Structures are given as structure tokens and as C-alpha cells.
Amino acid sequence: MSSQTHLHDSEPSAPLTYFVDGMDCASCVAKVERMVDTLPGTDGVRTSFTKQTLTLQLDEAQTPRATLEKNLKALGYTPSLVQPAAPTPLANHDHAGHAHEIAPAGTPWYRTGQGRLVVTSGILLLTAWLFGFIEPRFATAGYIAATLLGVWPLAKKAVASARLGDPFSINMLVSLAAIGAVAIGEAPEGAVVVFFFAIGELLEGVAAGKARAGIQALAALAPKTALLVEGTGTREVPADTLQVGQTVQVNPGARVPADGTILRGTSSLDDSPVTGESAPVTKSAGDTVFAGSINTDGTLTIQVDKAASDNTIARIIHLVEEAESSKAPTARFIDRFSRWYTPGVVLVSALVALVPPLAFGGAWHDWLYKGISLLLIGCPCALVLSVPASITSALSAGTRHGLLIKGGGALETIGSVKTVAFDKTGTLTAGKPNVTDVLAQGIDRAEVLRLAAAVESGSSHPLAKAITRAAQASQLVVPPATDAQALPGKGATAMVEGRLLSVTSPRHAATLTTLTVDLNRAVTTFEEQGRTAVVLLDGQTPLGVIAIRDEPRPDARTGLAQLHALGVKTIMLTGDNARTGQAIARDLGLDVQAELLPEDKLRLIAELKAQGGVAMVGDGINDAPALAQADVGIAMGGGTDVALETADAALLRERVTGVADLVTLSRATMGNIKVNIAFALGLKAIFLVTTLLGYTNLWMAILADTGATALVTANALRLLRWKGQTDATHTPSIPASRVA
């Protein structure tokens, strides 16, 4: 979201990031965004109520920084500029006058600012009620005091919102209703109105805090210190000072301080705080580890691969922040609807209050009372909360189970896709292929493996790594290669010992030369067995064939079966040969399109999109374009950085069953949202009729609004208890389909 006036004719300014104390709920974020939208010279606006931050580019020639800060304060927030090098605060800062301030973990609700307001208003209300039995005049004064105490902060923010371009805010509706009640001699009901509204605001703040708690806990996972290995000893240093390439020691029971690779040692690691993987995983030299994982039983020496700002935890938090700023289509529709709905409520209330007395001689008190009641019934609190509360809860639940979703739009779309397309290597298969056979022609088998390893020595492709690992296992001396070149979808070439060697697919090799009958027969046999065959060429002379097998992931068949049970079609898109693709697809039970170049995958994704929504799942070696082309791109967690950046969602557990979990979570979320919207609008429709018929009084009207807000929020929070299908087989849980 950005304002209609953008930066132009000058160099873009550096982004400003503010910690906005008090901006900790979905409606707060919407209020701040609407205000910023009215300021000229703003661009690149991003908000996060998880971290309470506002980031934007600001042309201070059009809007001075002081003006932005003044407007934020007028809305009831306390902004403080965060320097680029400083961490974004997640803790509470003292401030006053806002309904949902974030309190330190464990703070009782009655010690928060909003809690104190509720308690004080409640005491005044109770005192006034008791005085009603002794002296009615004192009771009236008490009700008026309770009303004014509760309405004062609301009125201040309502005036500020009106001045900044949002005259029909929720605060304005409640303020008008409460003051109107006092004006027509209904001070007791006015006091009840602001008291119930304060309770609703308190409940909203508590609920928002619960939805945020998982992400805030994630930020605290990484340990503050690390044991840096220096010479023969270790030295304790701050974990955020670790640099790539340094070596750290992790003792049993300690948390891993950085993303890295194990150099020495073997241990079971509990990755559940990061990936949601419930069972500890045994890792040893060469395996990767995540910052925040718990080392359970062995001492490990680890090489740091990523700085603190780029580790897995930091990236998860960054993805969640992106998710918050990416609204679902339903949320955008509700935002647009509420901008017309609220003024409509004010207009209808005014007509109900004025037309009957003026045109038909109705009693002023009765119709003013009904008009004020309609103001409260029309408050869009529950409606505005219905979508973001559900989305936030779902994103938090997904993150806890290793499902990273970049935004409400992606979350909404995943559940509606008709087809899921899978890459093969590293996605349906484990991505750790091994050489099974080497067939030579005219030279020794070891020589075929040695030369092929030289050609593939600089490649990160799983098949290339399988060949180089096999050469290392055979203790072959691999010669250096020069002028190495990758041929996407075909193979690789390089100059080795003065010869131009190629390792290519049999299909590509057939365009360069003619393979012998024996080599062709071997290739056919290997492929029918589900293995991938590659040909080693010296110029146009075939030197041999290498067979490589990449086993399917243990959960691949189960994950595909779960998708089929959900009514989702599955297809495998692979650059491998048709026989190998068909052998693996037949074993797993899905359709296949094989021998595809990257551009072929894009064409097929476009065709599948035309037949209904399509999601693409890949590990990113050659999948980034297809992930971007699909309605929803899903990256396996161990994939490349470019895949994680391109994709709309990521599976940290690297399980195929995670795709079905994404679909289930999406459908549960959309069902939850539909129930929320129907409940919010349905309850208002009922009370609209009862008010016009004279059956509803003011306190019932505000109770309907507060009650709807509380119930919508509580229903959204049920998504926090969501568990994937895989988890549900181990732990009793509410079935996702039952989360409404």
C-alpha cells in the first residue's frame, strides 16, 4: 500500500523504519496505513503489527518527517525512529492513550493501560449503580463520569482520525453514541456503552497478543552467546558477532548459535523450535544445522555459514513480516466494503433519528434513541477483524508446524488450486542420488567416473554431486577442469586434460552422435528401472554411461495420496527422461510430463493455470521461473535461496505431506473467515430489525457489537490449535475441516 503521490524526479530516499508503540492489532495497522496514504511523498509503505513497525520511503520535501510523527501521535501512537543498524524492538514501551498496547509476556490484563481503564470504568459504573439505591442524583453523576472517562480517549482519537482523512472511524461512532446517550438523558446506558466497548478493545488486544506470541518467541530462540573456537580452546562471544567461516563449539544441552555445517561430532538435534519437526534428527560431519536447534547429547564443532541477520530464524521472521503486509483478496474486499459501510451506517442512523420526528411527528427521544443504537449496531469492529484475525492465527499456526506462507493472498489461493505440479529431483525424491552403475566403452570404468567427475566438479546439481561423491568414494584423483559450462536441461561441458568433454542426457547425446547398440540397451534398462542415465562424450565420441538413482522421499506416496483425498490432481514435471519419470510416477501414483526444458515447464504451468489454479513445488535448482509462474510457488525448505525468495510458501520440514497440510490449512482458514463474516453481518442484521421494532436498547446494541467482536476473535484463535494431517496421526487435535 502506498499513497497516490510517489517519489519522482529525485533519487529515492533511504527507507525509514519506525517502532510504532501501540500499533499491535489489525485495525491499528489499517488506521496507520490510511493516515500514511493521505500524505504526499510516501512510497514503499510496509507495516508489521508483530514487531509494531512502519517502514516507508518519505520525500521530506513534500512531507517533513516531523509531520508524519505528529500524525502518528495524534492517532494515539508513540513513534520512535529505528536506526538501520539497530534491532527492531519487540518489547513494550510505556505509553498512554491507546487501547491495545503490547505488554511484557506474563503481564496480567488488569495491569495493562486498557485493563486499568476497564477496571476504573467498571468501578465507577458499579458505584453509580449502588448510589442509585441511596441518592439518584449521585448515581447520574457517577454514570456521566464513567461515560466521560471512557469516551475521552476515544473522542481524541476520533477527532485526530477525522482531521487526517478518516472521519467515519469506529472511535467516532462509539463517541457519538455515548455522548448522544448522555445528551438525551440516558447516561446509565452511555456508561455501559463505553464500558463494553473498552472490554471489547481489551479482548482484541489480548487475542492479537496470542496470535503474535509464536513469532515473538521465535525471535528469542537463537542463543545470545556462542563458544568461538580459537586455537585449542574456546572463548564466549555474543552470537550476533559471529562471522561466516568462523568455528563454534556446541555442547550437549546447548542451542546452536548460527546456521552452519558440522565439522566434527555426531549428535541428535531437536529442530522443533525452528522447523516444527517433532522427532530429534541425528546429524554428523557434513550435515547442516539451524540456529536455535537444541543439541541433545554430543559435542559438535560447527562452521558458521550465515550471519545472524541471515540465519533461518531471521529469514522466517522476515517472511512472516512480508506475509502481514500482503493482504488476502478477501481482506482487501472487506477493507473497501468497510469504507462505504461505515458512512452508510452514519447516514442510516441520522435518517432514523430525524425523518420520523420531522416528517411524521414521531417522538424525538424514541427515534434519537433508535438512531444512537444503530450507530453502535453498525460498528464494523467484528467485520474488520473477521479476516486479519483468522489470517494472522493461520500464519502463526503454520509457522509453528514448519509451513511458511508469505501472505494472506497465498494462503487464500493454496486451498483453491485444482492441480499441484511437482519437480522430481529434490522434491518428490530425497535429492541425494547415488551412482549405481558405470558402463565404459573403450576405456576403464574408473576412467569414465574420473573424467565425468572433473566435468561436474563445479556444479551444485544433485546429479553432479552424486558423480563427484562416487569419484571421492573410489579415491580417484579428479583432474582440474576449465571453461566449464552448464547446459540447462541438457548437461554440462568442460575442458579436461586438453579434451572437450560433456556429461549429457542420452536425448541430448543422440543429437550430437550415434550411441552404440550396447549403450542404447543399457540406457533403456537403467531408465526402465527408474534410474537416471547420463552419457560421457569426448567431443562426439561416447566413452560410457553412468546410472544414478535418487530414491523417493519416504513420505512422498502418503503426501500425494492426501492431496488426492482432498480432490487435488498431481503431476510430476521433470527434465529427466520419459522412462525414468514414468517409473517413478507409476511407483508414487501420479501423472508425469518428462524430458522438459525450463521453458517447457513454464508452458505447462501456464496451461494448468488455464484449467484452474495450480501450485508448483520445487527445490529451486531450475525451478525458480516455474515457482514464479504458478498461482502458488512452494519451495522445499532445503532448496536454494532463490527458490525461497521466489516462492509464495516454503516447507521447512521438507516433507511432501506438507503440501497437503498447506491446502488443509488454507481451506480451514477460509472456512473460518466465512463463518466470521456471516456471523458479524448476520448478528447486525438481527439487531437492526429488533432496534427498529423497539426491542433493543443501547447496552444490548453495544453488547451485540462487543460480543460479535469477541466471538469472531475467539473463532479466529481456534486456528492456533490447528495441526497438520501428519501431526494429527500422532497427537489428538481438532480436524482442520472442523475449524470453522
Summarize the structure in words.
The chain is of the alpha+beta class and 740 residues long. The protein has five domains: 16-82, Alpha-Beta Plaits (2-Layer Sandwich), CATH 3.30.70.100; 113-215 and 320-394 and 667-728, no CATH class; 225-310, Distorted Sandwich (Calcium-transporting ATPase, cytoplasmic transduction domain A); 403-429 and 552-652, HAD superfamily/HAD-like (Rossmann fold); 434-549, Calcium-transporting ATPase, cytoplasmic domain N. The chain contains 25 helices and 26 strands. It has a seven-stranded mixed beta sheet, sandwiched between helices. β25, α22 and β26 (649-651) form a beta-alpha-beta unit. α4 (136-163) crosses α6 (187-219) and α12 (408-414) packs across α23. The chain starts with 15 loop residues before the first strand and ends in a 12-residue tail after the last helix.
